[in-house]
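INTERNAL TRANSFER SHEET
From: sequence group
To: structure group
Subject: Hexosyltransferase

Please process the attached sequence and return the structure record in the designated field. Keep the field labels unchanged so the import script can parse them.
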Amino acid sequence: MLPRKSTITKWLMFVLILGGMLYTVINNNASPVNKEIEIRKLLEYAKDPIINKPPKGEKDLENHSGKVYSSINSSAGHENQPNPLTLTPPVNPHNFKYMIKPKYQCDDSVFLVVYVHSHPDYYKRRILIRQTWGNPKNYKEKIRVIFIMGKGLKQKVQDSLMFESETYGDIVQEDFIDSYKNLTYKGIAGLKWVSENCAHTKYTLKTDDDIFVNMFNLLRHLKSISMHDLGRTKLVLCLTWHAMKVLRDKNSKWYIAKEEFEPDHFPPYCSGSAFIFSTDVVKDMFEISLTIKFFWVDDYYITGALVNKLGLNHTQFISVYSLQKPKFEENFSGPKGDLYIFAHTHEADKIRKVWKRIISKEGKSMKSDYLLSS
Ligand SMILES: *[C@@H]1O[C@H](CO)[C@@H](O)[C@H](O)[C@H]1NC(C)=O
Ligand SMILES: *[C@@H]1O[C@H](CO)[C@@H](O)[C@H](O)[C@H]1NC(C)=O
Ligand SMILES: *[C@@H]1O[C@H](CO)[C@@H](O)[C@H](O)[C@H]1NC(C)=O
Ligand SMILES: *[C@@H]1O[C@H](CO)[C@@H](O)[C@H](O)[C@H]1NC(C)=O
Ligand SMILES: *[C@@H]1O[C@H](CO)[C@@H](O)[C@H](O)[C@H]1NC(C)=O
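Return from structure group:
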């Protein structure tokens, strides 16, 4: 959801050039979440909002059968005094209903699950992805691609979406209104679906329907880091922003009031265009989201607030992003094409052209069919 038009270009340049100078790693006070038990309680709450009486003492903390309690201060650790307990509903419950859900889950052999933020209206973008980088038949490693969205406004579009889902089996739709300020719900919906349906996959990629992915390069990279301990678990791999300024200009589309977010700089977070998790963290992220207040800046919320709260570190992946539109073809088809993975572009003809070149280079033939991958 980052400002991606020409503004993002400027921002990216800005960040790249001044990167060294600005490189201020904000030391966030994220502490690893050790109170799994509280989270479980919150989850039970999400399932069953009937609240029983709170327990009185520490001992009862262990007993969470059907009850939901959360500590006022869950990051307080083990102080001398036990935390006072209160009856707190999840700060950010996610109890939207599925309007559309694929019939098939991921099977255990899936290496990478991809959830693509989309919108009911953007049928053409989904078709293009299915015909190019999102077609699982191109790859040795098994991938599963799903499109995630809220509800649109037109019944006609909804009807064709049902048909699309019948045909491809790759649509996940929840019943929140699909709008700019609701993108955080979409992000959480993605985490939820993956943790419930694809928990055994090795890696999870989130991307948008206007992002091109050189999946061959990505799979090679993931395959190679999956051989190493450091790349296997607790991984958050992305173009990481450090100390990104919070925009206080009231005329900006990305204006954020002090009341919404107090600090003037964001703690580290990822470009929302594409980010990768080892799938072990996805469930933790969904669960912790229930305890963190909704904030509409989805890329910060998902890859900043949740990630930092879980005590995970971002691994910088900036070199594989080519987000400057005019450079897309040049970067992906040039001699160093192997170095790039993600690009932001709306130009379907260029995407097809670049894809054709990639396909022939990889020694594959163009396949335009797209069948269910599991
Ligand atoms: C847990 O709470 C339930 C309901 O209050 C009670 O029936 C049960 O005995 C408790 N279990 C333990 C281990 O305290
Ligand atoms: C929560 O705990 C932290 C660390 O112990 C402490 O600094 C902070 O003041 C506490 N916040 C509240 C609301 O109690
Ligand atoms: C976000 O979704 C909720 C649930 O559908 C809806 O009530 C709310 O109006 C939406 N907000 C915006 C800004 O669209
Ligand atoms: C994150 O980095 C810090 C500092 O390098 C390290 O102490 C910590 O263990 C790391 N956390 C994870 C989950 O890797
Ligand atoms: C990719 O784009 C960058 C930024 O515009 C440019 O400087 C670079 O030369 C390009 N690389 C290749 C291999 O085309």
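Handover comment: The first strand starts at residue 70 and ends at 71. Residues 15 and 258 are 23 Å apart (CA to CA).
Transfer complete.
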